[in-house]
Amino acid sequence: MAVIDFDLACVDCGAGLRGRALADACPACASAIARTIDPSLVDMGRLTVAADLTCRGCGYNLRTLALSAACPECSAPVVDSVRPDELRLANPTWLKTVNRGLALMLAALFAFAAIPVLMFVMNALSRGFDPFTALVAAAIAFAGWVALCFGVFGVTSRDPSQSTSPRTAAAVARLLVLSPLVAFAGIMITRSMAPRPWIGVALGPIVTLGPALAIGAGLVCLRPVARRAQRPGLARLTTVLIALMASTAALGIGAAVLSSIMSAQMSTAIAARAAAAAASQPAAVVFPMPNRLISTAVALSGCGTAILFVGCYIIALVAFFKYHALLQTAMSSSPSQRQSSVATASE
Fold it and tell me: How many whole angstroms separate alpha carbon 33 and alpha carbon 5?
């Protein structure tokens, strides 16, 4: 069996493995070298890549290349790509990008939570929701949305070592987080054309539901992170959170549709009554009371959406903090970090 003739650090302790055979154990921690190099991907006699394997730095196919060589596309060491698929062995740049995105998403969630707190404080001070408070709330909401956009783009960034990453969910998350722009544009265009209140009622929830659904799609991209870190409990929590967010979105959309129907009916009735008054005719249309069944459905769906929204918010905070800690641990225990620690200690 061939001997390792290049610099290789143990994934568990960072000790050098040069001069050892793949069947040996680490001289420092007695961990099997097979934990550092996946033997199913390697020709044990020639120490070359024996299977189709994508580079964890750029995605290039490394088959037949020697473990001591570098990727011809990005110059990343080939040996880094034959390590087991563990989170701590993932591309360090990708880990930092996802971790930074999580931090921005957490900041966005706290910013969104500050808006109702601000409204409550202003009401308690008997100032009401005056123009200054409205401006501050709008600034906080905009800053939170910008942070959420950058956070979603970071969390859904592609891991170059994974050829089967959830790209559809990433694309959906990025489109949804930008959906408030489309909603605002639609509301402003329709207002300039003709007053149609029901359009604003229909597009308004997109401003809230779009980013919320973007967070859900981002969680789909985060779930493999928990699995690679061997945290099945966190993966299950993520699945439950995704299901709750989907239910919240369904209820919210239902409430928006019913509210749009009620608004359209009331707008039509008011317009007919105004036309009758302008023609000096007896008012043939009485201002309608909302249909009791529809109004009850709107109230129930609105309450259900609010309750689920608060629950999703709390669970999302817990999940994001857990993922943030997980990524921090993965970055601190990466082979490069351990190797630098060992080198520092030896000096």
Answer: 14
Residue found by looking up tokens 């990708």 in the block: 94
pLDDT digits (tens, 9 = 90+) for 150-167: 999 999 998 766 655 677
pLDDT of amino acid 124: 74
CA pair distance 8, 182, nearest whole angstrom: 51
pTM as predicted:
0.69
Contact predicate 143/187, CB 8 Å: no
CA 27 to chain centre: 41
Cα Rg of the chain (Å, integer): 28
Q: Tell me which residue of 145, 152, 151, 144 sits closest to 171, measured CA to CA.
A: 152
Domain ranges of the chain: 1-84, 89-332
Tokens 């563990």 locate to 86
Predicted confidence band of residue 315 (pLDDT cuts 50, 70, 90)? very high
Phi, psi (deg, nearest 5) at residue 338: -65, -40
Residue 144: which residues within 8 A CB-CB, separation 6 or more? 107, 108, 109, 111, 112
Listed in sequence order, the residues at least 6 apart from 1 whose beta carbon sits closer than 8 Å to its beta carbon are: 21, 22, 23, 44, 45
112 has pLDDT over 80: yes
Contact between 312 and 241 under an 8 Å Cβ cutoff? The reply is yes
How many angstroms separate the CA atoms of 60 and 242, rounded?
Answer: 33
Element (H, E) at 43: strand 42-43
Q: Is the dihedral of CA 3, 7, 9, 14 positive or negative?
A: positive
Q: CB-based burial of residue 18 (10 Å sphere; 0-12 exposed, 13-18 middle, 19+ buried)?
A: exposed
Rounded CA gap, 183 and 210, in Å? 9
Contact of 75 with 52, CB cutoff 8 Å:
no
* Dist CA 247 CA 288 (whole Å): 32
